[in-house]
Structures are given as structure tokens and as C-alpha cells.
Design goal:
Number of helices: 2
Distance between the termini: 29 Å
Largest sheet: 10 strands, antiparallel
Radius of gyration: 26 Å
Number of strands: 10
Length: about 190
């Protein structure tokens, strides 16, 4: 009877651990931080932002872009103002993130009368690593004033995952085999 109880407890602990860790197949949300290093222009300095997107439609082959319809969201603090994806001049068609063979090429993000992030103002639908000061939505009025670097962020584990692992571990520790004392008498 004791063995059946221990097996039931072990099965329950495994079920909780699996339910907490294994989730139904879903798209991965990818997080990046970026730093603008403005080296010239009116306001040299470093400015920070982040973006997030759903990578479920990436094939990893050739040139690809993901936009707002792929869950792209942006937060960028520049000159004391916070900008989001909605701030882009061509929202919701832009902003976009670009990839070459599955590797991030960069962000393409245009905020009228403020800035443009990308590689080439003549091709604003391709992301990149250059930062431009812009006088209007007319991309001919841009001046390159800095660079952009990107770093992948590590997501924080969900509380449900951590809780399931803690419960399963506690149950496993509570099931340590106990030694029975048995005496053999002759």
C-alpha cells in the first residue's frame, strides 16, 4: 500500500513539473535592447530602447522583415520623450525589423521631424545600424549622426514555471527513501 501511495505522489509531482515547464507549441517572443550612440549633431550621447516581436513566421532563409502584424512593439527614449511603434510615420506598415538568413540586420524606424534608424534612407523598409537626424518625413533631409547596436535580452521565467519546479522539487525531496530497520533474530 505504501508503494502505491509513493508512486501516486511521484506521478503527481512529475505531472505538475511537466505542466509547468512544457507549454503548448507557441510562437517565441524575442526581445532585443538597442543603444543609439549619437556622436555628432545637436545632441550627442547614448539613447536606449527595446523591441519585441513574434518569430513564428521567420524561415531563416534570405532577406526577411517582420512588422507590427508580427507583434513588433518598440519603446525608445530619445531626448526625454518615449516613442513606440505607433510613433512611426508609416504606422502600421512600419516600423520593421530585418533579417538576413535568420540573423537580425536591424530596425527600420522613422519618426517624422526627429530621427530615422536604418541603413539607407533611400530604402526605409530595410533595418540597419545607422542613426539619422531627420528634419521631416522627407528622407532626403537626413544627416547620419550615429550608430545603433543591438543585444538580445534574456526573458525572465514566468512565475508559473518557477512555481511548478519548486513544488515538484519539494515533493521529490519529501519522497526520500526511508530506511527500514529490520532485525533478524535467530
Amino acid at each position: 500500500m505504501k508503494l502505491a501511495k509513493d508512486i501516486s505522489i511521484a506521478a503527481f509531482a512529475v505531472a505538475i513539473a511537466v505542466a509547468a515547464v512544457v507549454k503548448p507549441t507557441q510562437a517565441a517572443l524575442v526581445n532585443y535592447d538597442f543603444t543609439v550612440n549619437a556622436t555628432s549633431g545637436d545632441r550627442p550621447g547614448q539613447y536606449f530602447g527595446s523591441f519585441r516581436y513574434d518569430d513564428s513566421t521567420l524561415s531563416g532563409l534570405g532577406e526577411e522583415t517582420l512588422g507590427v502584424n508580427n507583434g513588433l512593439s518598440i519603446l525608445f527614449d530619445y531626448l526625454g520623450t518615449q516613442y513606440t511603434e505607433v510613433s512611426d510615420f508609416d504606422y502600421p506598415s512600419s516600423p520593421v525589423v530585418s533579417f538576413t538568413n535568420g540573423n537580425l540586420s536591424g530596425l527600420s524606424y522613422l519618426v517624422e521631424d526627429r530621427f530615422f534608424i536604418g541603413n539607407n534612407p533611400g530604402n526605409p523598409n530595410t533595418g540597419g545600424t545607422k542613426f539619422y537626424r531627420i528634419l521631416s518625413a522627407d528622407l532626403l533631409s537626413t544627416t547620419e549622426v550615429g550608430t545603433v547596436t543591438y543585444s538580445k535580452s534574456t526573458p525572465v521565467p514566468e512565475p508559473m514555471t518557477l512555481g511548478g519546479i519548486a513544488i515538484a522539487s519539494a515533493m521529490a525531496l519529501g519522497m526520500k527513501p526511508k530506511k527500514k530497520l529490520s532485525r533478524v533474530t535467530n
